[in-house]
């Protein structure tokens, strides 16, 4: 694997998940030096974002670019590399936020009509479990994020250390985001609570009167679950409820997740194939 800008590299374990029925993952720690005036969480987010961009982006690629606070650092680093290395890349954003940032940085923006196949998608997450299952949608863009990730040959997640969990719900307490058609939000709430328990609530806007409205003109429910679930089954059950557009459960989609640490180091976890080797990203070769 080609690594840029790091002063130390230490392998922690090549096989850390041995629980019956779970695929093992791969861990490494990498360290990048930053100025001391950057707050620790910001430093952690930037570390993860920079490492993902440095490891997975190369000339001639079509990239999926996600949404959220950590993606801001990824776009900044991508713009630096495009300028410094004269890279020719095309970016498909997952939200108005990321499209605006890409445009401001002078990066080439496309969409899935013109660029339906992506080499790599890079996005943040609200939580990542030990099997690289994700909760996403804290920024109300889970539908576009899932569509873009599904179009990529390789899906990379970037986050700070607070998002790294053994089980979903361990760190993230705001529930699973679910995008719904506005007229159906009450029946969807009733169906989710009846089928799966817990509590589903309509997400309200922080700086506006009324609910959060997605880029697609829909509402967001946040479903707070009360116990560990079979997430693949839950995702399917919620998706089948009339009125549901998409869930914030990303199951068996991510191949690698980078976690920035407060000291500037980065750990990563990657999905292993059935023969015990990491699922490869051609851009790293």
From TrEMBL:
SUPFAM superfamilies: D-ribose-5-phosphate isomerase (RpiA), lid domain, NagB/RpiA/CoA transferase-like. It catalyses: aldehydo-D-ribose 5-phosphate = D-ribulose 5-phosphate. GO terms for biological process: D-ribose metabolic process; pentose-phosphate shunt, non-oxidative branch. Pathway: Carbohydrate degradation; pentose phosphate pathway; D-ribose 5-phosphate from D-ribulose 5-phosphate (non-oxidative stage): step 1/1. Keywords: Isomerase. It comes from the Eukaryota. One of its GO terms (molecular function) is ribose-5-phosphate isomerase activity. It is an enzyme of class 5 (isomerase). Pfam families: Rib_5-P_isom_A (PF06026). The keyword Cell cycle does not apply. One of its GO terms (cellular component) is cytoplasm. Its EC number is 5.3.1.6. Belongs to the ribose 5-phosphate isomerase family. This is ribose-5-phosphate isomerase. It comes from Branchiostoma belcheri. The gene is LOC109471602.
